[in-house]
Amino acid sequence: MPLLEEALYRLSNVLLGPVLLTVLGLAVWTLALAGGLLREWLGRKAVRRTLDELRRIAAGSAHSDEDLLQCLAAGRSGLPVRMHALVRTWPSERDRAKCLEDLELETAARLARLGWITRIAPMLGLMGTLIPLGPALQALSSGDIARLSSNLVVAFTTTVVGVFLGCAAFSMSLLRKSWYERDLSDLEHVFLHPRSLYVATKT
């Protein structure tokens, strides 16, 4: 039994280094994602102008598919740009639903990264808290105050960073989700609903 306890203790101590490195890597990644979010926020007005123009064109009785594609091509950022790239890959009008499905998958993948950070960062923060507590208790029993304080600083700092990263990623995920849902709704309205109504009238 003591041998098993010693093995688990050493294993947990070995994990501390990778946990701290992973938390640091997540912090850098989250910072990069925050920069991307800021860039998207700065381009939101342009994206909404493109989508409003698409809706205006689609509302006209004499619009063509080419008019919609030209409006997409004029976009500079956001989902309209990605939609235009997908339409170039699937040029047939019958493939518009496929383009929208691929666009939804892309946005889901972007949100999944933030969702992963939201869940994994607090877990790693908890691991970074619990692992140093073993050496800290040993230091307390032997009266080594310097080692005790060092381990406690590592434990509490890792917790704070992990929880903060989870909160930041969750907030960014909610904001991006609200943007993407609104943009996708407009694109579906423009490229699917009029066509489905037309088919229903013909049949």
Short description, anyone?
This protein is mainly alpha-helical. It is built from 7 helices and no strands.
Low-confidence stretches: 195-203
- First-to-last CA distance: 77 Å
β-strand number: 0
Rg from Cα: 26 Å
Sequence of secondary-structure elements: HHHHHHH
Give the DSSP E fraction (strand runs of 2 or more residues): under 5%
In which range does the helix fraction lie? over 70%
**H/I helix tally:** 7
Mean pLDDT: 86
User: What class, by secondary structure content?
Assistant: mainly alpha
The global form is: elongated
Your description of this structure?
The protein has one domain (36-198). The chain has 203 residues and is mainly α. The N and C termini lie far apart (77 Å). It has helices at 2-42, 44-59, 65-73, 79-89, 96-142, 145-191, 193-202.
